[in-house]
Amino acid sequence: MIEECKHRKDAVNVWLKSLPACNLTQPLHRSNKKTPKQRNMKKFIATLGLSALVLGAFAQDNTKAVGGSGPMITLDKEVHDYGTIDQGANGTCEFKVTNTGDQPLIISNCKGSCGCTVPKCDTAPIAPGTSSIITVKYDSNRVGPINKSVTISSNAMNAPEKIVRIKGEITAVATPAPTSPVKENTMAPTSN
User: Any idea what DSSP says for residue 105?
Assistant: First the structure.
């Protein structure tokens, strides 16, 4: 058995010596030069990919802008600032609502955050491209800062519940002092 192994070892050594000599100190590598066939294949794949992208973009027929389908609510402002107003002054403001969608907008409800804020809105459908006015009345007999909200509920696809705010400050009006003395009536008996 040992002799058989020696025989095989000798056979392998003879076979290795019969191979042509090569320099194994340098790593084997391919040339960076591309063949014309490789260059044509790269061009073909790039052209095919670009064509698929362009054809895919043009295949979209009847496209609309994102969010463009259905009723859409847009307001002229989200906050009304009264600034500083006197007690008892006009506390009414308006918000303009526009339907920027492609179907009728229906405002189902307008609700103030407290009893001092009373909104009034029309529940009739607002056609695409048209507007309506929401009137908000604040009780300006209350002195101090104003920071209230009104919730507008509708069938709008972009904002089914839209919140607008009113803010400002109400200052007390000084009562004028009497210009002439006033005699107070007393209940005490008078002497003659």
Answer: B
